[in-house]
């Protein structure tokens, strides 16, 4: 297969992310979100919120991370962040993205595999910020949907606050804003 | 409204792109694509095909262009490239994206409005490449779907070849590859 055909086969393979269903519904829609449209949404969210990052970040790297961050779900499926993430699932996602990046021409996938591993480890400023932003749209979905996915998946307020407090690692200002909204959602009975 | 709330209202507003239906179906799916998942797909396609661009391009600018390129469709809807694009429709898209970018904090939207206008004009190397890549996934969809959208929208082979030959302005190598695939699709009766 020639080089361009290899890239085209990658482009066709990643179409499958459009069929991976997530646990929240886009604001105003009665269907669940898929991981491809989510990936677009977090990229644009990261771009527009970049001035609120705690650390100096490279937004171009962050966007690339977020473009690929869910590719492992094509093989492994989406998991709600409130479920405990097993080592087995992490391995399945890693081998999934590795399989997909292997479709690219020789030597092209490694750079993106490293970027994905950096995102997963969540230790560099870029990865910390990217992971923080990844949590924002699902919170907004629930806040605009009477806590639909929190109630459906039996997630209490304390769990939502504890798990999402990691947003503060990427942006204190953003977390402070969202925490206030979550407190108000508690008063309205949005949690399980 | 404080600054972060303005960005969050933008993030919620652009959710509507997930409900804008396009004219082709993702490979393997029996539903039509929406413009949000398409936007993700073209960003990643542009990234992985960047080595085949005719000119020196700034891939980070190209990705930002493609992240926002369809936002005007929230107000104007999607139009198949084979339909003639009226000035009225172009104006509707421009005022649509302007409205959406105006939700951002003071002074933040202008940069992206300029980027969108550059994309629309299609004259700089970045815009020429971005516009070329924007045409690739719909071709792949039709090539993997027996020409479903070409037949349904009554598009003959010559029209597909003529309109998509503009891909060559962004990448001769890519167009040469796709043109060969389109010729073969003609032999299989994929066109109207």
From TrEMBL, chains A, B:
User: What is this protein called in UniProt?
Assistant: HD domain-containing protein
What keywords appear on the UniProt entry?
Answer: Hydrolase, Metal-binding, Plasmid
Q: Does the keyword Amino-acid biosynthesis apply?
A: no
Q: Which InterPro entries match?
A: HD_domain, YfbR/HDDC2
Q: Where are the transmembrane segments?
A: none
Residue span(s) of domain HD: 14-175
User: SUPFAM superfamilies, alphabetically?
Assistant: HD-domain/PDEase-like (SSF109604)
Superkingdom of the source?
Bacteria
Under the heading Pfam families, the entry gives: HD_3
